[in-house]
Fold this sequence. Notes:
Layout: E1 2-8, E2 15-19, H1 22-29, E3 43-47, E4 61-64
Antiparallel strand pairs: 1-2, 1-3, 2-4
Amino acid sequence: xxxxxxRAKDEFYATVVFAETRGKARALAMHTEVCEDVDxxxxxxxxxxxxxxxxxxxxxxxxxx
Length: 65
């Protein structure tokens, strides 16, 4: 599972989600406090490979960053 940093465009707050692809990470982000009222297309997603080690089975997100 890969770690992704997600946030609304032009916003300061972000969270880390764990997903197999960028699109799945964006979809998961829509269910977080950081991106709950944000359109799918307005969510920025960046890969954070250094966070991969924090993944545990069944874990979908890490929390605020």
